[in-house]
Description:
This protein has 456 residues and is mostly helical. The chain contains 24 helices and no strands.
Amino acid sequence: MDPKALKFKEDGNVKFKNGQYQQAIQDYTSAINAEPKAKEAAPLYGNRSAAWFMLKAYKQCSDDCFSALNIDSSLVKIRQRLTKSLLAQGEFTSAKQNINKILEITPDDAEAKKDKDLAASLEVKLNDANAALASGNFQQAVNLYRILQQHASGCDDLVLKEIQANIGLHNYATVIRDCLQLIRADKGNVEAYYYRAKGLYYLENYDQAVSHLQECLRLTPDHSAAAKDIKKVRLLTRLMKAAESAVFVRDFEEAVKNYTEALEIDKDNKRLNAKLFSSRADAKYKLKQFEEALEDCQSAVKLQGDVAEPYITCANIFIALEKYEDAINTLEQTLKEVDPNNLLAAQRLSEAQFQLRKSKRTNYYELLGVMSVASLMEIREAYKNRAMEWHPDKHSSKSPEEKSHAEHMFKTIQEGYEILMDAFKRDLYDKGYDIEAINEKVQMKQAHEKRQKTGH
């Protein structure tokens, strides 16, 4: 070996032993450049490959192993290192081929046989993982890719495939985190930017999604998927902002138009489309297009049943249609199964229950035949006429059923008169309270007045 090359090699060995692998690589590189004889350079490539391996730079390690083996293919130690490097990169088939060459040189090599079995097993798992990913069996794919990464820690492709499977599982936070780790390790990892953009998009962080897609296109201008997605996200955000602006100025027809256009952009995005259906349903509800609004609520729930908004809009429609029991059932389901702490759902439930009670109470104004703005004198006069009309004595000769009806009417007329002649009770009645609730309020008022008098 050339003396100058030998000196560089020895310096590199010292640094290697001290764990100074990057500096050792520099010395081994100088030794390779200084050695004129190819045969003498083979072990130098081997030494440098060992330093690369310690730095987990498996691609560079493999390249140096191949350079050494091109000079001398019988170097078993270098082939063993090449096996480990190929496995770490997920190159299982190439690793198997290399192991076969080791066994041609040393047929009884137990470690090589063990590595061959491992490579074959990993190759099968890789095929199974890829098949699971292609068929939509995403959880199985994730499990297999994680097993493979335990043996192929330097294979970014396996991480990217697991990321694709996690997108299929809607594990978007995991996607964003894993992509960021890849980007920190390699700022030129185009696919990491692309899939992180997808994760951000699905979590409705559209500005950051666009930013990542722009970086993706900066690195690879002809990345067609990124170019398509950036147009999609920009159009979507424009339509959604236009719809929100229309709602703000109460132009609900324009809002419906924009939401409808937005629903055509990405039919596979269930979370997004559920939100769009829900928002369009609310706009249609405001337009009193109740049947169409209900259909949109149902579409939203079908796509994403764990969000309260479409249920609440549905209940609002039922209240508007005076289907109070349907509204109550919907809101009770929302609070029980979807969002137990939703204050708006709880408020709407109280309102629906109140409106149901109100709908079932007697209309005392109608019963007495007066307007809701009638004076006390008008109410008193109307009461006299109606009470005389339904007094039980006037119906004593009627059938049992007719007498019972007359008694009920007379009692109800008296009940209505008592409420409408009392300012406090009438006010409560006009607000929608039924007789039971009115009596409760009266008792509360009396108790309060009593406490004030006694000083307690």
